[in-house]
Amino acid sequence: MDPTFLCADVEGTLAPRVADLGGLGLSRDDIRRIIPLSPNSFRNRFLRRNFEFWLAELGSFDKMLQVLRMNSGLLSIDLDKVAKPNLAFLRQCGLTASGIASTNVYNTRLFTMNPELLREGVERVEELGVERGAPMFGRTLALIALTSKEVVVRRIQLLRKYGFSQDDVPVIVRKAPLVLGMSDQKIERNLDFLIKDVGLEVPYIVRRPVLIMYSVEQRLLPRHCLLKALRQKASLKGEFDYYVTAAMSEKTFLQKYVLPYKDHVPDLVDGYASKCAGKTTARVTSL
Known about the structure:
Elements: H1 3-6, H2 10-22, H3 28-34, H4 47-58, H5 61-70, H6 79-92, H7 97-103, H8 109-112, H9 115-127, H10 137-145, H11 149-161, H12 168-175, H13 184-197, H14 202-207, H15 216-232, H16 242-247, H17 250-258, H18 268-276
């Protein structure tokens, strides 16, 4: 608990705030759930106004609690100078507070950030070729606006190092914006695997950028090794699309490529399970 909250004047500060929230119909139990999430807001005389505003925007008390766990400043932010201008601008972009919160509560930091930085974030997203109203606009905006420009530029340069063109980057961002939210190390690890080990070409990855986001250790490597082993043992014939095998659910992959061959290839299931558990970090090896 914030020590400044514990030292606050009970009668002059805390009791009036509790009474304000009680006047909105909140029970003492409800208020007790709010306090540890946003203790500083109980020293703010605008607590009731802020709570009432955000409750209307987000639609439910439970959603409020979810958002407060990620953005404790919601109840103490200046509504007139920050929150309302930001929400009005987001609506112009086709986004609503409840919609953003439903996608990812982390993205609600857009509500309380500097309005000028929010507008700059929208400009940066549009420069990447993602237009307002596009399905991925909201997620892309949250990622770009809440990440420093230098970091985003560095990750774009990293993609360029692997042979992705300037025109490829907007395509990747439109389809899988979270690629730019990955660490540099993970981007390098995944692209090294996809290009050097699997042998995929850049245009193929551009059309299916979600491949960059999959875990190498727990998904891509185990499946690649399994399929390679089945081909070497002539158990698996015919062509298959790499993306299809990488994207299918674990249950489907097991039913299609593991269980039918477990009697023909000894230790197949155990070997695959071991790799999925991350017990090997070596580059591609046979099962």
